[in-house]
């Protein structure tokens, strides 16, 4: 994604890659069971590094949270493409032009399924503008939106994360980073939102844009190759030169129903979050980690889910208001 930017800025790429330590240059992995918080697999999971379009998980979560709080219907709320999209490089699959309009939901489909940077910026501009108005403030709406992304990260305990924009492209003079562990936290949180999880599990979606030339429609296909496989619920892919190929995946199994000592039945929900950063074969790597994750989780649960050191063995993701 956006490789041409780096070909135009070779000195920037050289400087950026030189600043990445050998540790960070390696793959980072985190596998987490979402309901219990049990860490199942972790490798280089706390190394700070670029995460490309996995940034858009935060963009989508903030937008969905705002719509819920504001009582806005993402399917009917029309948002306007800002003039500032001309400053963002990369593919423009919908040929978005300043002044075009589309629903917030369709913008989320394009950003989360198709990894559309311009759609992500359009979301940030609209929601950021609304936040500024409600707070009686002035300023740049995208900056306000990104500040909200960082507030969410702080509230979730993502202590090694900093967002610099809503799309995840590296920019000269800005520093954005996260970790596999923090992306797992973010993914757990986002997948709790039905409006978010419904979007990222779709293999494709037809969306509409209105502009000066009339209405036009596009089919957006999910860039996550695992979507459509049994139990896969999303969530997001990302690739840049600095970040390498990345993916966060959510897989769910049917709840485990067991008989309690009192004779009643209890159900244990089961959901894996798998985060892979900088893996050239990210999808097959994620498939293997899903199998590995369940192979660790199943005997742990059967043994009564023992925990000796909560700080090391569990990641509990809060649900901040």
Q: Could you explain how this protein is built, in words?
A:
- By secondary structure, the protein is α+β, with helices and mostly antiparallel strands.
- The protein has a single domain (3-7, 25-313), classed as DD-peptidase/beta-lactamase superfamily (Beta-lactamase), CATH 3.40.710.10.
- The chain has helices spanning 3-8, 10-19, 22-25, 55-70, 104-112, 117-134, 141-155, 180-191, 194-200, 282-302, 310-313; strands at residues 28-33, 39-43, 78-80, 101-103, 204-211, 214-221, 232-240, 244-259, 265-277.
- The protein has a 5-stranded antiparallel sheet with strand order 2-1-9-8-7, sandwiched between helices. The protein has a two-stranded antiparallel ribbon with strand order 3-4. It has a two-stranded antiparallel sheet with strand order 5-6.
- It is globular, with a radius of gyration of 20 Å.
- The relative contact order is 0.19.
Short recap of the structure:
With 321 residues, the protein is α+β, with helices and mostly antiparallel strands. It has 11 helices and 9 strands. The chain is 38% helix and 22% strand.
**End-to-end distance, in Å?**
34 Å
Low-confidence stretches: 1-23
- By CATH, the architecture is named 3-Layer(aba) Sandwich
CATH superfamily: DD-peptidase/beta-lactamase superfamily
Strand order of the largest sheet: 2-1-9-8-7
Mind telling me the CATH class? Answer: Alpha Beta
CATH topology: Beta-lactamase
Mean pLDDT: 91
**Structural class estimated from helices and strands:** alpha+beta
Q: How many helix segments?
A: 11
Which percent bin holds the helix content? 25-40%
Strand content: 15-25%
What is the chain-wise order of helices and strands? HHHEEHEEHHHHHEEEEEHH
**Structural domains: how many:** 1
Shape: globular
Radius of gyration: 20 Å
Largest sheet properties: 5 strands, antiparallel
In total, how many beta strands? Answer: 9
């Amino acid at each position: 994604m956006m490789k041409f930017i780096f070909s135009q800025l070779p000195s920037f790429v050289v400087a950026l890659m030189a600043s990445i330590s050998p540790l960070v240059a390696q793959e980072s992995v985190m596998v987490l069971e979402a309901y219990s918080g049990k860490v199942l697999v972790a490798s280089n999971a706390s190394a700070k590094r670029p995460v490309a379009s996995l940034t858009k998980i935060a963009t989508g979560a903030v937008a969905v949270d705002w719509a819920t709080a504001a009582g806005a219907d993402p399917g009917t709320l029309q948002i306007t493409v800002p003039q500032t999209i001309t400053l963002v490089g990369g593919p423009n699959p919908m040929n978005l032009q300043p002044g075009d309009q589309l629903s917030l939901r369709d913008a989320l489909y394009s950003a989360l399924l198709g990894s559309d940077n311009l759609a992500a910026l359009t979301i940030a501009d609209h929601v950021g503008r609304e936040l500024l108005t409600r707070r009686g403030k002035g300023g740049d709406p995208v900056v306000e939106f990104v500040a909200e992304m960082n507030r969410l990260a702080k509230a979730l305990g993502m202590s090694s994360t900093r967002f610099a924009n809503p799309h995840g492209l590296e920019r000269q003079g800005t520093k954005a980073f996260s970790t596999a562990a923090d992306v797992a936290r973010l993914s757990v949180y986002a997948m709790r939102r039905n409006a978010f999880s419904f979007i990222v599990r779709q293999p494709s979606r037809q969306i509409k844009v209105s502009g000066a030339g009339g209405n036009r429609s596009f089919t957006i296909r999910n860039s996550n190759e695992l979507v459509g496989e049994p139990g896969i619920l999303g969530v997001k892919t990302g690739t840049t030169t600095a970040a390498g190929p990345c993916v966060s995946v959510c897989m769910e199994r049917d709840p485990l129903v067991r008989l309690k000592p009192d004779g009643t039945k209890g159900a244990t929900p089961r959901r894996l979050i798998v985060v892979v950063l900088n893996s050239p074969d990210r999808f097959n790597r994620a498939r293997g980690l899903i199998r590995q994750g369940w192979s660790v989780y199943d005997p742990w649960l059967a043994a009564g889910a023992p925990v000796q050191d909560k700080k090391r063995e569990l990641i509990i993701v809060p649900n901040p208001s």
